[in-house]
Design a protein that fits this description.
Number of domains: 2
Largest sheet: 8 strands, mixed
Distance between the termini: 65 Å
Strand content: 25-35%
Number of strands: 15
Number of helices: 9
Shape: elongated
CATH architecture of the largest domain: 3-Layer(aba) Sandwich
């Protein structure tokens, strides 16, 4: 079968849109397509335009096999909505092409972030959105429809060097993009407790445990996006001994190699320091590979070098890796 063509959606696509959505919903027990609950599908292009947005259709062999909408949702935010792909076309890149069309359109019309809602039963959709750097955001909502739909909210920032703290739900949903960041950094030579080449499975397991630590209140996890893709992260560890309630450890400062030299590392560091102040921490400590890029970042950020411990760690080939320790006192932090 020929590849699908992406084009603007039309009101005349109503039957095709309805059939596509009904087929997708039928894959999930309890999901019922009731035309009366989605009257906008009768004239979806007009409806989207009336909201200041647009709709796209993917057509193959005269049939609608994919669709997506985008429209303003709140100040600075656009919603990605009604994203569906027919089963035979999943895994072909069509879904990514549809999502990219909607995200790019929103970005060119001033969107600072993209939000969406996805039924809690749509686990495949969740994996897709999370793979595109969306994270869980806000409370769930109940629609009160015939399908008894309960939906997760997702969001991601657009633009350059956008940094935000992730709560436990967001941290858990960011497992895949965070694992990609860790794999890329380790494979590029970063000495962060793992050997290259690093497989996705142990990388994902690490972030799964990190999300649990966030839920327990033991860590703060901060992520950075560039152009809608999660490209960097840093953590604050609060699990200090009883006699050190004023201290936190800065750990796993990671920026994908292709995203470096854009100020992302400095933005992550500033966010981590502010999070430490907000938590009443007055002293931060860290260690980093001697001679690595991190040293320059920390010195430029006003951190004080304590000294170097030779042969503190090992590289994958068994050669020694020296480690330099830094600290920073935080002005303006309320004592715990």
């Amino acid at each position: 079968m020929g590849g699908p063509a992406l084009r603007p959606g039309r009101d005349a696509d109503a039957a095709g849109f309805m059939a596509l959505i009904a087929a997708c919903w039928a894959e999930y027990p309890g999901c019922v397509m009731d035309r009366a609950e989605v009257p906008e599908l009768d004239t979806l292009a007009t409806y989207a335009a009336g909201r200041g947005g647009a709709v796209w259709a993917a057509e193959a062999e005269g049939r609608v096999v994919g669709m997506v909408c985008a429209w303003p949702a709140a100040e600075g935010a656009w919603e990605l909505a009604k994203m569906y792909v027919a089963q035979p076309w999943r895994g072909t890149g069509l879904a990514h092409a549809l999502a990219a069309a909607a995200e790019d359109f929103a970005g060119t019309h001033g969107a600072a972030r993209i939000v969406l809602w996805s039924d809690t039963r749509f686990d495949r959709a969740h994996r897709f959105y999370e793979g595109r750097s969306y994270v869980r955001a806000g409370a769930i909502r109940a629609l009160g429809d015939r399908s008894n739909s309960i939906e997760f909210g997702y969001a991601k920032p657009l633009g350059e060097s956008v940094v935000q703290t992730l709560d436990a739900a967001a941290a858990a949903s960011a497992e895949v993009p965070l694992a990609r960041v860790l794999v890329a950094c380790v494979d590029a030579g970063a000495s962060v407790s793992f050997f290259a080449p690093l497989a996705m499975a142990p990388a994902r397991a690490f972030w799964r445990e990190t999300a649990r630590a966030v839920a327990r209140g033991e860590r703060v996890l901060i992520a950075a996006w560039h152009g809608g893709t999660l490209v960097g992260t840093v953590q604050l560890a609060f699990a200090a001994p009883q006699n050190q309630p004023h201290r936190a450890d800065l750990a796993k400062m990671l920026v994908r190699p292709e995203a470096r030299r854009r100020g992302i590392g400095a933005a992550l560091l500033a966010a981590a320091e502010q999070a430490a102040r907000d938590a009443g921490r007055t002293l931060l400590v860290l260690d980093t590979q001697t001679g690595g890029a991190g040293e320059r970042l920390y010195r430029a950020g006003g951190w004080t070098e304590v000294g170097c411990v030779p042969d503190y760690a090992r590289f994958a080939d068994g050669s020694p890796c020296d480690t330099t320790f830094f600290f920073k006192r935080l002005a303006g932090a309320a004592p715990p």
